[in-house]
Write a structure and sequence with these properties.
Length: 249
């Protein structure tokens, strides 16, 4: 089987080629290319190889640009130091996704998959994408103004977010409130739903804030948070069931 390596780091390409010589000596590397432009030109002028090992981040762009310009029929094993390109990789002819530094055991499995490659196998991979959730990067801290200074507050210190008089605040374990430049609707997408729950229009609370819960009128629940006793924190009736499931998850 003829192999094409698309990799702009010489050390990574050398490491991959050494492993291939050890694991699959019958495979022949026909070319090593370092850029989107070179790889696109090569694939336009030469027969499609049996297998492509393709880094994703190249010096002149992402390797996905190659496969948008040139139709290849062979399987592609993507190699990268980043894990957030997986879905896009499988939207091409990608059959595997190896994180650098490439380990021998993982490479063996990828090569075995390539040897057994069929169009049906690719279809199965693409259909499986419906079960893959994009990796969500949540905020790890918020910047607040304290006098003339700017202070970062880690999310681990924040037990609640709330709105009051058209402003939004975060509330910390040490019973301090700080104004922030986000609405609660925005915060729902910026913090983890495993850590915080939007109990009503005005409050989003952390699990740590839920140690004092009592039954309230109309099948609702009421929360009491030390330092915020003057605020009525009631779980909206339509959210009670989801709130209980969140607490019990």
């Amino acid at each position: 089987m003829n192999i094409l390596i698309i990799e702009d780091e010489a050390r990574a390409a050398n490491h991959l080629e050494r492993l291939l010589n050890k694991i699959a000596p019958e495979m022949e590397v026909v070319a090593r290319l370092e850029s989107v432009r070179d790889a696109t030109g090569f694939l336009m002028e030469n027969p499609t190889p049996g297998l492509i090992f393709s880094d994703i981040q190249l010096a002149d762009g992402l390797s996905f640009e190659i496969y948008q310009q040139v139709k290849v029929s062979c399987p592609i094993i993507f190699t990268t130091a980043w894990d957030h390109y997986a879905i896009e990789a499988f939207n091409t002819n990608g059959i595997d996704y190896l994180l650098k530094p490439i380990e021998e055991v993982r490479l063996r499995k990828a090569i075995e998959k390539a040897r057994q490659f069929t169009p049906g196998h690719l279809l199965e991979k693409i259909l499986a994408l419906s079960a893959v959730k994009p990796i969500q990067n949540y905020k790890s801290r918020f910047l607040v103004k304290v006098g003339e200074k700017i202070k970062p507050i880690p999310v681990e210190e924040i037990i609640a977010f709330y709105s009051l008089e058209k402003a939004t605040y975060l509330y910390t374990h040490n019973k301090q409130s700080y104004a922030i430049d986000f609405a609660l609707d925005q915060l729902e997408a910026l913090v983890s739903s495993e850590r915080y729950f939007r109990v009503n229009r005005k409050f989003m609370v952390s699990f740590e804030a839920c140690s004092n819960i009592t039954a309230w009128s109309n099948s609702r629940l009421r929360l009491r948070i030390d330092g915020l006793e003057d605020q009525e924190i009631v779980v909206a009736r339509e959210r009670v069931q989801d709130f209980k499931q969140w607490l019990d998850s």
